[in-house]
Amino acid sequence: TCRFLLPLQNNYNCFSISRNLNRIFTTAVQSQTIMTELCQDLSVFKPPSSVRGMTDLDRLAFEQTVMVPAIQIPTKNIHTVMKSLKKVILQRPGLKRIVENWGDGNTDCKNGDQRLLLLDPSTITSSESFGNKEAESLKAYGVPQEIQLYELKLTYEHFKSEEILRAVLPEGQDVTSGYSRVGHIAHMNLREHQLPYRNLIGQVIMDKTPGITCVVNKTNTIDSTYRNFQMEVLAGESNMVAKVRENGILYEFDFSRVYWNPRLSTEHERIVSLLHRGDTVVDVFAGVGPFAIPAARRGCNVLANDLNPESFHWLQHNAKLNKVDKKITAFNMDGREFIQGPVRERLPALLKASHKIHIVMNLPALALEFLDAFKGLLASETEDSVPSDDISLPQVHCYGFSKEKDAQRDVVERAEANLKTSLQGFCKVHLVRNVAPNKEMMCVSFTLPRSVLYTEHKQERDSSEEPRPKKQKCEDSTN
């Protein structure tokens, strides 16, 4: 019960005021109740439950109307006040936070003197929800701390990709919108429970990511021969020729026929930072040139090889594209044949030069096995062609995967097994990245031992021994 000390002329005026006050009070209570419910259940910004299980994207099915808090602000002060309230303003993709016309006959909004600013219901639930600085700013501009509810229409455009996929896919199962971006292509590795929704997932990713015009999914593991993998187009065009800029260098290639991993840009940059002008770089598994091109740009002479004819083609293309084709000699050979052929022929002369030699072997699934190609490589050289010290001997940077608990020890031991010598105290191991749970990509760097290069090694097995197992295929397309 409220008592008002007002000069009332008659009972009608008393009744009229009481009725209006009761209506205002009831509306305020209802608004506060709704705001409290919004705070407790933030599903106000979740897509409708009816989209669950959708396999063909229906954008109209995501439309719904929700109630959000808002505050009325003079038009002349709207942008200044917005800066003060930036932490509590409603943030949704593609959503206008300032409403010019609202209500049914509001004079202030009709003549343009007032605007409605939409607020975040997870932060603002009442007029007391504003912080001290926010409240002071509102007071300074004469803005009452009065919250009202606004009927907001949400559409497909206002939801984030993860929100859409979480609403569509089976409840309780993992939802991921993660992908690798390669130019205009989004490359996904979908799990089995996501496959029935793959076309919808592809369309959502393309809709929500500017510049993506093609979404593909890996359908098989990488083939260790050419390091490419089978894929299917989930959404968009079928143009697989990507243009990628990495560390300031432009690359072009057919993503469906060569290997490219955007997660290795930091590693490419790390190795290139070790190089100096005049050095020689031997890239045994060069791909389309992520080591070779920047090395040549740095002033190095590069011998670059790849078994995949497509990679060889795009390696030459990228060398010309970046105007370093005169610095790169490209080969299309098996890695072991490349080491024992062109590299063997050039190595004696390179060892006499004053610049360093770096050998990069980035085929993590198999590269450690190729180290045996260096055993006795220069055993036939005369004594006067052998360097007097180890400073000029090649520096090897060899990559490998490990699932062992001590990954560093594992890759070193495997390198030693293939070189038939100890590397203890003569090598460094760098963690490149975590590929998967309990699987690391490592880089072991060492000076190629003199005993390996110049000592003749006998055959390690005879006909009675079991043949070496076939080379395995890579296990992960993101490697």
TrEMBL record:
CDD domains: AdoMet_MTases. This is SAM-dependent methyltransferase TRM5/TYW2-type domain-containing protein. HAMAP family: TRM5. Involved in mitochondrial tRNA methylation. Specifically methylates the N1 position of guanosine-37 in various tRNAs. Methylation is not dependent on the nature of the nucleoside 5' of the target nucleoside. This is the first step in the biosynthesis of wybutosine (yW), a modified base adjacent to the anticodon of tRNAs and required for accurate decoding. It catalyses: guanosine(37) in tRNA + S-adenosyl-L-methionine = N(1)-methylguanosine(37) in tRNA + S-adenosyl-L-homocysteine + H(+). One of its GO terms (biological process) is tRNA N1-guanine methylation. It comes from Danionella cerebrum. InterPro entries: MeTrfase_TRM5/TYW2, SAM-dependent_MTases_sf, TRM5-TYW2-like_MTfase, TRM5/TYW2-like_N, tRNA_Gua_MeTrfase_euk. Belongs to the class I-like SAM-binding methyltransferase superfamily. TRM5/TYW2 family. One of its GO terms (molecular function) is tRNA (guanine(37)-N1)-methyltransferase activity. The keyword Mitochondrion applies. Residues 456-479 are annotated as: Disordered. It comes from the Eukaryota. Residues 179-450 form the SAM-dependent methyltransferase TRM5/TYW2-type domain. Keywords: Cytoplasm, Methyltransferase, Mitochondrion, Nucleus, S-adenosyl-L-methionine, Transferase, tRNA processing. One of its GO terms (cellular component) is mitochondrial matrix.
